[in-house]
């Protein structure tokens, strides 16, 4: 395995930090591994589905526990990527892809495919700043993750419509642990190094405990997109018979490297680097696309996986102020940054060249004169100033919490947290509309005989520099400097949140004690984005940032009760009813209620049934409310013209959005037979019905819904005189309805292997998870679209019918191994487009991991490990760029070492 110079340098730099940590904390750190795996105490957040923290309470809302061991399978680069392997999640992008837009490198999670804003992410039961970005949390300090797969707004507030992901931090870790890891794909790219370390120590005679940890990651990314044969240069085009086809080797038919003449006597001729002409090989022209031939594509240059560097750190101090009060102080800091090629600013047949242009070759001028032409139109794929994106995201958050008890078992908690996130982006290389027009319109000066901008003839004071566009590499640096600029933005978002809760058992009934939890919370979120002067002036042709500023605040009160109804009688061994309610008062939209009612019952030893009904809410976030304008480009299929087109898409916020409400129903059972210790099975049905949904409708769905008769969607589509779509507006709206239902199931078994095979060494653990989705639909009031089996298109809402994950682990005294299979049922590329070749077969990926513990050296534990994801290097389905389900990287191998002191 080889690594780039930068990768090697980063690895050496990161490794140099490890001894520094060791020296800082000294060899006095003694390992206390037992504490890391012990059950948490009553005062800690262990049941994310509820505020009730009574020992032994099991909430009626389904919860999946993911341990630190589970998160390590496959050596995924962050917590989100590890969770996305679970069938309950829809990956925001593929397992290792980070996307190449202005949010590149973010790692959010999305339960049920209902959108990342409907999955509430908590850190030890408290909100954290960072827009659901799990890259901000150092994995080395993570003790585990609780995933609530049902509505939990009554317990935790807005955003928990699809569920809750609660990350638990190991605040009791003692000792020192470190890790170093390197990875590479089967294509010898995506090279990655990762270094992590954590240390913990008690002080003040055990009353206090300090933990600090962090991780550093450097990934070279995958550049360009067409380095993967099933990914780059694929597009949806018409097959000429009223249907569409996913075609390979698709480029622009109205642009060429160095320029393509689009009109007049020389139509179809392209400029060579020396300014001479050649016949452009357009392959098969379908609309603005060419299949085959030499049509250029952004996929030839832009990344599939964005290069990124990041670090995440966290420090935590807990201290017993008294025997009854514990203080927790926490500081978290992270940064992500890089600079990479982005997407091109091209002329797609819309550039007018006059016949007296100063740089136009003589042969071309002669041909135009002979034909009586005074101008022609040209398309040009501009590589000389191909824009790049230089981004930096910094997150800082501090939290102070108090936990205490009084009286006969009453517990209370209070906390305040302040977080700030900076998002700074510069994107040099975009054309300035007026400067570019001035520079393109060049002539020969009648006084000097040199090329000048035509505007210079009437305004000698102009700083215009004429540009030569005839041939790749023809523009001078001075001209490029004049015609391009740098869209830029500086954004800071803030979160201030605090709360108080009281829990206890005020009295008992014959079936047991009644538990209650009451509390109040307050939260303020704000954003302030400034942009460059050129962005403000809308000086750029194809891309610019927009300023944004705004804030909202909410005050909330909640209450929850657990009532034991019947106990220790046939069929009703332990019947409990759980109810919760919350009122949320927003300064933007007023007050709104959420509630939950559930019950659990042990029908016979080990078999417990559960059922919940809830009303969940979500209010619009900062982006949805205050974004002023966004710019993007998408290739969409137009049913009206039966063609595909690469079209400008503008988005934005909507200050008039109203909260969405959801009705959630879950029911199921858990069975842990006493006669078979270590065996567990659970099955749960879910039904989520969201009204007044806050969302943006994708560009393709806008066009499809317009064709289905939605006049409001048609008003968002702009066409030119020939009927070709030129612009689509996709601002946030309240859509009528989202609805999904299905079944989750899990079977697990853990035991010593000698219980199954006499004298066999080690311990095994088997786990199988499945999610079956019956339906996932959106309804805009005019048409309803079904998204189940629509699973190849990355920018839609699609989900497979069935996803399953099966894992088998074996751990011995020295060696251990795990194998995992990830299954995706067959489906379609995109249900909203009639594709001839849109069917996707069933996929199964296999992952393998092995570990070896070396003999202890002076009490130090060292473990070596290797992992291979997508072991058999399965190619993804065709055209699955940024696929949320399929591995677009190929086999990925990581090797590393972990050390504990």
**Oligomeric state:** single chain
Q: Name the beta content range.
A: over 45%
| Structural class determined from secondary elements | mainly beta
- Uncertain runs are 1-46
Distance between termini?
29 Å
Mean pLDDT: 89
* Helicity range: 10-25%
Number of helices: 13
Rg, nearest Å: 30 Å
**Tally of extended strands?**
49
- How does the major sheet shape up? 22 strands, antiparallel, barrel
What is the approximate shape?
elongated
Features:
elongated, disordered N terminus, mainly beta, 5-stranded mixed sheet, single chain, about 10% helix, about 900 residues
Structure characterization notes:
The chain is mainly β and 901 residues long. Helix content is 10%, strand content 48%. The protein is built from 13 helices and 49 strands. It has a 22-stranded antiparallel barrel. It starts with a helix and ends with a strand. Residues 1-46 have low confidence and may be disordered.
